[in-house]
Amino acid sequence: MSEEKKKEKEQITGRKKEAHQNQKESKEIRLDEKEYQELKKEAEEKKKVWEKYVRLYAEYENAKKLWQKQKEELLKFSNFRLLRELVSLYDEIKMAFASLVNIDTEHRKGIEMIEKRMQNILEKENVEPIEAKGKRFDPFQHEVMGFEERDDCEENVVLEVLQEGYVYEGKVLRPAKVKVSRRPLREEGDSAQKEQEENKKEEIVTDKSQETDTSTD
Fold first, then answer.
1. CATH code of the domain occupying 128-216
2. In the prediction, which pLDDT does 38 show?
3. pLDDT in tens, 61-97
4. How far apart are the first and last CA of the chain?
5. For residue 124, what are the CA distances in angstroms to 159, 161, 164?
6. How far apart are CA 79 and CA 86, in angstroms?
7. Is the entire prediction scored with pTM above 0.70?
């Protein structure tokens, strides 16, 4: 390579380096202290606005979920009283059917169809009977109507269901009216024990009454 071409190549290389350096320097932004502080302040304000937006959006999403849940609860229990009346009607139909003795087959089948239809409606609406007989007395699901002294079973066990109870979506639609066992009274101290049992019955009825009021509200 001649000396002249060598110099020409070096000149070209030098010009490229210079152009690259100028381009690099042109991208750099130089700020004085005042401009830097202003930009910093503006960035902090925008950060606060963004954080506030994120917080408000999260609160909105939580509120929306709460509204949806309340809406579902309202729709679910809006027919609570109607279902309570339906179970009473269902009981009346069953009692009427059980009391019929001298009735022809055609009419019996008709009443059976009505009873079955009512049962299907309640099942479709997720109304379920409360299990009571043989179970431990539960003041939130059972309403005590009387006691029977028994020494062959534990105390506070449901012996007899006088009226069937029902639950709807996990809430008591109507408590089961039951007869509950208790220990036989001893000869000594009968009066005191009877009084204690009566007080216990009143407490159970009071607790159940308060729970019923809360469910109705």
1. 2.30.22.10
2. 82
3. 888 888 888 777 777 777 788 888 888 888 888 887 7
4. 103
5. 30, 24, 18
6. 10
7. no
